[in-house]
Amino acid sequence: MTLGPRGHRHLPMPLWLQGAVVFLQAALLSAVIVLVPVFAAWFAGGFADRSAASAARLAGQVWLLLHGTPLTVATGGDPGVFSLIPLGGTLIPLLLAWRGGRRLARASYTDQLWQAVVGALGVYALAGMGTAYICSTPEVSVPTPLGALVPLVPVTVGLLGGVRREAGSWSRLVGVDPADAVARSSQRMRWAGSYLWSVLRAAGLAVLAVLAAGAVLLAVALAVNWADIITIVEALHPGSVGAAALTVGQLAVLPNLAIWTASYSSGAGFAVGAGTTVSPFTTDVGALPAVPVLGAIPTTTPTFALLTLLIPVIAGMLAGWWFLREAENHFDDWLALRIKPRWISATLSTLVLGVAAGAVAGLLMGLAAWLSGGGIGLGRLTELGPHLGLTAALTAAEVAVGVVLGYVVGPWLERQPPLEELPAREPVSATVDVDDLQPTS
């Protein structure tokens, strides 16, 4: 018997079992969050052709979809793949895993944490496998290997994030202190590591700025087209429960739409069906499904659309200014020692910085576009979301230009006073009073 943190006596639990219990609770809680709106809609008559068991299987399929598991859909024709992940809903298992990771970190020593992680991921894999096996139907099916493995991706991300947050440092998490490892390396390796890490953070800042601007543009589009959205809702006649379920579903895909809008600002645009394009240069959407939130998508190219292309450039300028303030441009220092004309070394280092930061930003934006896109496997709605390669390439180019501009203009934004304007320092007297040297009693 041992004493718990509040003085209660309890039997010691093996770490692998504790991890399994904590993440079994997370799986059940996320399942309940999905079951409640599905059965509310079923009780209200939203699924009149479904039995209670069928509604429960539908909830299980939605649970798998929230974890990023693709569903195979067969509705009479050729089977398709429902791969559009509602990223807003994915936050539910991610945050629950983050909370569970913090609990496991508090209960484990550094060299024992792997036991809790193995138990946690093992039980979650079994939950996903069982859900895929039970909830598969002739119309919607999920291979059990995918049901076991794919849900582990967001859960592992949340688990490691929670463990890192609770541990406070990577040394407590993995038993190795990166700061000590870097301190033992050569000075050139430390400079190179600091430079690359600053480039990565600057690129991440640029991508976050682009995504934030995309969210703002989406909010503006929803506000401007609110009347059209309300018209679509009224045409559906969903009822009170149906309207609530519809609202929850649309909230789940709002992060996807924000990423689509960010891709729009890069010039690449996005698709809302096979053969469609929505971009600042051209708009061809055809007939859209009766989903209220899609009423915010422009059916023609707005007159101010080309101005959105400035967003990634401005985000890159912000990243370049931040990199200047970080003062970690050791590549520029290295070039300055080898190339005597300063204008040549400064130009080369700035161009390399822009290319490197732009390339990383393009990769990150391409990853976001890939996560937000997909299809629902029905009709022409097999292609939804940004054009991956074009989004990554254009974002990389625009952010690179912005980083170069921000790094060049940054010194003028600092507003540091010239040296001649600094207050003069008082001269220090070189004489010493002999009495000051006498010992005090």
Descriptive report:
- This protein is mainly alpha-helical.
- It folds into 2 domains: 11-180, no CATH class; 185-414, no CATH class.
- 64% of the residues lie in helices and 5% in strands.
- It contains 15 helices and 9 strands.
- The protein has helices at 15-43, 52-66, 87-107, 113-135, 144-149, 152-167, 170-174, 178-183, 187-224, 226-236, 239-266, 310-326, 330-338, 342-372, 388-414, and strands spanning 2-3, 9-10, 71-73, 80-82, 140-141, 270-272, 277-278, 283-284, 384-386.
- The strands form 4 sheets. The chain has a 3-stranded antiparallel β-sheet with strand order 4-3-5.
- A hairpin with a 4-residue loop joins strand 7 (277-278) and strand 8.
- Helix 1 packs parallel to helix 4 (113-135) and helix 13 packs antiparallel against helix 14 (342-372).
- The longest helix has 38 residues, at 187-224.
- The chain is flat, with a radius of gyration of 28 Å.
- The termini are far apart.
- 38% of the residues are buried.
